[in-house]
Amino acid sequence: SKSSQRDVNIWKSCKEKIMHLPLLLTCDTLLKKIKPWPNLHWIGENSSKAYLVSERLIGEVDLHTGSVSRIHKLSSMTKAAAAINYTYNGSYIYGILTTGDLFFWDQKSGSLFQAQGIPPLVMHTPCSADKDSDGPLQVVLDFFKLPRPQNLSSDETTDNAQSAPTCSIPPHQKPYIFASSDCSKVVVVLGASQVYLWERDSAYPFSKKNSSLICGHWTVAECGSDIPLPNLQSRESQITSCFLAEGSREEKCHTTFSFIDDTVLIITTLTLKWEGLGCMVPQDRVVSAYWSYISVSHLALGLKSSQVLQEKGTLISQYAHGQSLICIALNSLQQHSKLTYLHPMCNTAVVTCICDAAAASQHDLPNSNGDNSHWVSSMCWSQDNTYVIGCLRSGAVFVATRMGPLLKISCSGDSLQFRPAVILPLHPYLHALQKDSSCEEVTVCMESGSASTPEFCVSCHPVKDQFLLSSGLRVSVLVFPENG
């Protein structure tokens, strides 16, 4: 296709010549919080505010002042939330409750809507003549009965809660939820084995004039036994989804499961497709879905099996906005991490190496001796899908071209100047303190910070050419050049 050929051309041109992008630091703010607010994201067009969206807390951050506040209207939802997400355009924050019900919050109008959840669907799914036997309903309810922390203080975040011993659940064993931009279609994944699709009745759009209860119907996306999916032995996996439109009458949704099986990286994708408006099949039938998978050996990625660990954080994945292109960061030992680009319907992978870039800048990266500080902790695509922006666990930032190598980037701002390099240590943990502070001050900071290591993340603005880097306590906003 023209899009695929364009990607190949970009990749070839970038290999021939490494570009240089000058970044401008326009905002660098400390949050007015003692405990960190990790995973901040831009939601909607307002670039002066970022949001924390988690199963335990939904809050707002003023990037200019550093002040934080909760969205109190959603407090009742977060108390019983099993999974929460938001639309890329920022119109909605949505989630699934422990009851199986769905909720949708319209950010612009402030209206809150709900829809009946999964249990009504599976109760009508014939599974066994014995009413007391385990069946699909029990599978759903069991996932919502996973150990959950109790009596959280008002300052505790989801990440604090998940670190509790009773919540050490593999990532793919937790519910995931994804929705289209208008929340007319919702995909719910339970345990990487149960996939459900909810579709809103077209006669009941989100509107203040309508009831707060939205009508819709559920269907099941069945998976054959020959399709590889994460299992209980898979300690790390990534589940991500992308809704895209092709023309005016077709829509698609890719939901991708990425995981490591022995010496192979497996990427399994469920593709749902609609013709025109409404569901692809009648309401009382199981959804006909297309499953595909790609296997990429560690050897093909330039890795030895001993260099890849089965632990949380090994994989990071992100779809390009509204496109069938996924980027997966595979973290490994000894500076051998990779970026892998794949189209879910093509058995081809393009691999970019992060390790050489990180090794070249090693003198700039703090705490790099065996603590996985060179691992990618977060990634995002620029608003036009031209670049992939990522950050390491050390707080360093990199920028890669679409399906291409890492670029040289520089950064300038108030009292800040970084020369061109492929890795920039913008938020070096304790690095600046070691240079500018006394030994006593550094010791105090290390002791206070040892209990809560910064969790760095990046988020691109959905409209503007800029991204933010956050440690949970500090947020920096960087702008791309106009002709970048």
TrEMBL record:
InterPro entries in the record: CPLANE1 (IPR028236)
Top-level division of the source organism's lineage: Eukaryota
Protein name (Swiss-Prot/TrEMBL): Uncharacterized protein
Record organism: Cherax quadricarinatus
